[in-house]
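Quick one from the shared queue. A colleague (R.T.) flagged Phosphatidate cytidylyltransferase as missing a structural entry in our internal table.

Convert sequence to structure tokens.
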Amino acid sequence: MTTPPPIPAKWDDLTVRLTSSAAMVVVGAAGVIMGGIWFQMLVVFVTAVMVWELWMMIRPKEPTKGMLLAALVASIMSGQLVENSPWGMLLFLIVPVIGVTQLNTEKKTFFIFALGIQVAGWGLVHFREDFGFFWLLWLMSVVIVTDIFGYFAGKAFGGPKFWPAISPKKTWSGTVAGWIGAAIVGFLFTIFTNAGLWVILISVILSFAGQMGDIAESSLKRRMGVKDSSTLIPGHGGLFDRFDALLGASLFLIVVADVFDVPGVVF
């Protein structure tokens, strides 16, 4: 009986990544499908944890403050999602401001990322409520397929780095493959919806926005000298590592929805 050949080193994390991804897909899909309070609770939890991870990257020796800020994020987001007041959006400034007062360094970094995380989380919930399950599925599919195509193409083909100073592992082959994957998702949605072919272009731009979210978090980790935002998810690091692209995509869609204003024009 022959022994199967060992898995090449560049693929040695694949099993763990796939297992963790499957678990996240199941939980995420359940929340997205059910919508309402269930999806809100999922987004509030993920958002609060990401703010905690952000704090821990900057100030790892004071975890209690990070947990208190995360609890405050959960409270503010829960209240804002229920009331949905335009003025209530100003409450998203509370945690960034408090964090800044407690930090000696990286004040701007914490402020920008903490605010962006909360706004992106709020945007995801309202995207689900305003446009429905199908288009949230499109958003998530673009981000997930971009990541999958990028991962396998980068591992298989390698080549020139996309932005080596910030993200040494990302290659042009993986980046472009992500755009191709997003375009395929967009094309499939033109088949099953009444959206025009322009959704293919929007999907590619959305893919790029997600990649920029990934790049932004990679830049933060590089500056903080950490490999992952945390160790919560085997093979993926933390929730911030896993959802950074979704944050970038969500912020992009908030801008698009605001510019076009009318849901029917955009989707």
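The chain has a mean pLDDT of 85.
The chain is about 75% helix and 5% strand.
Added to the table.
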